[in-house]
Amino acid sequence: MKLEPTLNPEVLELLVESSGHISHQAVEVHFRMAVVGSRFQGLSPLQWHWLVHTALSEGLVGLAHALTIYLVTDPCPVE
């Protein structure tokens, strides 16, 4: 997977959550991903997800059943 070079994240977590889901197929894998990075600033949420899915496309084809993505542009927003 090309997540780090493509997204240049400050924080990147990719967790497998399959054990919490009841599935009729043993091969279905559920992932949860959290990304914090300035790479997403100025982009729409659709563009954020496009970047992530493009970076993941090779590594998760045929493996992932579900992917939940949490994206943040700034880990400590100043108000």
Give the helix/strand layout:
Layout: H1 3-7, E1 11-16, E2 29-36, H2 45-60, E3 64-72
Parallel strand pairs: 2-3
Antiparallel strand pairs: 1-2
What is the element string, with H for helices and E for strands? HEEHE
User: What is the strand arrangement across the widest sheet?
Assistant: 1-2-3
Number of separate helices? 2
Percent strand: 25-35%
Give the helix proportion (percent range). Answer: 25-40%
Q: Spans with pLDDT under 50 lasting ≥5 residues?
A: none
- What overall form do the CA principal axes indicate? globular
InterPro entries: BolA, BolA-like_sf, BolA/IbaG_stress_morph_reg
Family: Belongs to the BolA/IbaG family.
Can you put this structure into words, describing what you see?
The chain is of the alpha+beta class and 79 residues long. The chain has a domain at 1-10 and 36-64. The chain has two helices and three strands, in the order αββαβ. The chain has helices at residues 3-7, 45-60, and strands spanning 11-16, 29-36, 64-72. It has a three-stranded mixed β-sheet with strand order 1-2-3, covered by helices on one side. The mean pLDDT is 76.
